[in-house]
Amino acid sequence: MKASTVESYRLRLWRVLDFIQARLDEPLPVADLAAVACFSQHHFHRVFRGMVGETVQNHVRRLRLERAALALRHGDSGILDIAQDAGYESNEAFSRAFKQHCGVAPSVFRERRELSFPRRPGAIAFGQMPPIDDLIVPGLGGPLMKVELVTRETLRLAGLRHVGPYNQCGNAWEKLLPMMGKLGWLSGCESMVGLCHDDPESTPAEEIRYDACVVVDETFEAFDDVTIHGIPGGTFARTVHVGPYDTLNKTYAALCGTWLPQSGHETRDEPAFEIYINDPESTEPEDLVTEIYLPIV
C-alpha cells in the first residue's frame, strides 16, 4: 500500500463529502462532485460507493432525511415545508421515504421527540464532518482483491447502443449477435465486449447507457444502428468477476473503492469495459465469467 496515495484519496473524499454537506439544498451534478474530488467523471460514482459504502444518491438522500429529522425534533416548521426542504414534492412521498429510513412516520417522530434515527456504522452524519484523519473509509479497510496490470492495444468495436436498465441489455445482444455472426465477426473468447458508461446505482434506470460490442478490424464499416467505438490502448487494471451480471456492481466497488486507493494509480477519463468469457444462454449465472478492465495511469 502506498500511504501517500491513501492519504490523497482520503483527502479528496473528505473534500467532496464536505462539499455535499454545505450544498444539500442545491443540485449536485456528477460533473461538479467529480471535479471537487479530482476523480474521473467516468469512475467517480464507483470510487465514492466503494470508499463511502453507499452511493452518492443514497448518501445525499440520507443526509437530507437526517436534517429533516432534526427539523421535526427541534423546529416548528410544517411537515410539508420540511418535506420540500428535503427535496420531496409531496408530503406522501416524504412520509414514505422518512418511514422507510426512520421506522416511523414524520408526524409520529415529531410527537415522540425522544426517538432517534438509525445510524449506519462509520457513516458520515448530517452536520458532523470528522477531521480528515478520523474519516472512516470502508473500502480502505477491506482485503485487497486480485488485480493484475495489463497493457492492451487499441480495440476497435462494432456496437449497438442500449439505453435503459442493465438487466434489459440482452435485447441489444439478441439483435447484434445474429447480424455480426452472419458477417463472420464472432470468434474467440474476447469477441464480446460491453462498454459501461453509467453506474446503475447512481443513474436513473431509463438513462443508463450501455454498448453491446463485437471486436472488429479496420475493414468493418458501420451500418444501420451499429456504430464504431474505439478503446484507446494503454494500461488497465484487470480483475475477474465470477457470478451473475447483477452482482458486478460489488466487484466494481471493491476494485475502485478498495484496490484503487491503495494501488498508487489513478483512472483515465475513459469508460471501463467488460469482456464476457462464456455464453449466458448456456451457462448457469453463478458460473458466468466476466473480465473487467479499468483504464489507469
TrEMBL record:
<dbReference type="InterPro" id="IPR029442">
    <property type="entry name" value="GyrI-like"/>
</dbReference>
<keyword id="KW-0238">DNA-binding</keyword>
<dbReference type="Pfam" id="PF12833">
    <property type="entry name" value="HTH_18"/>
</dbReference>
<dbReference type="InterPro" id="IPR018062">
    <property type="entry name" value="HTH_AraC-typ_CS"/>
</dbReference>
<keyword id="KW-0805">Transcription regulation</keyword>
<dbReference type="InterPro" id="IPR050908">
    <property type="entry name" value="SmbC-like"/>
</dbReference>
<dbReference type="InterPro" id="IPR020449">
    <property type="entry name" value="Tscrpt_reg_AraC-type_HTH"/>
</dbReference>
<feature type="domain" description="HTH araC/xylS-type">
    <location>
        <begin position="14"/>
        <end position="112"/>
    </location>
</feature>
<dbReference type="InterPro" id="IPR010499">
    <property type="entry name" value="AraC_E-bd"/>
</dbReference>
<dbReference type="InterPro" id="IPR009057">
    <property type="entry name" value="Homeodomain-like_sf"/>
</dbReference>
<dbReference type="GO" id="GO:0003700">
    <property type="term" value="F:DNA-binding transcription factor activity"/>
</dbReference>
<keyword id="KW-0804">Transcription</keyword>
<dbReference type="GO" id="GO:0043565">
    <property type="term" value="F:sequence-specific DNA binding"/>
</dbReference>
<dbReference type="Pfam" id="PF06445">
    <property type="entry name" value="GyrI-like"/>
</dbReference>
<protein>
    <submittedName>
        <fullName>AraC family transcriptional regulator</fullName>
    </submittedName>
</protein>
<dbReference type="InterPro" id="IPR018060">
    <property type="entry name" value="HTH_AraC"/>
</dbReference>
<dbReference type="InterPro" id="IPR011256">
    <property type="entry name" value="Reg_factor_effector_dom_sf"/>
</dbReference>
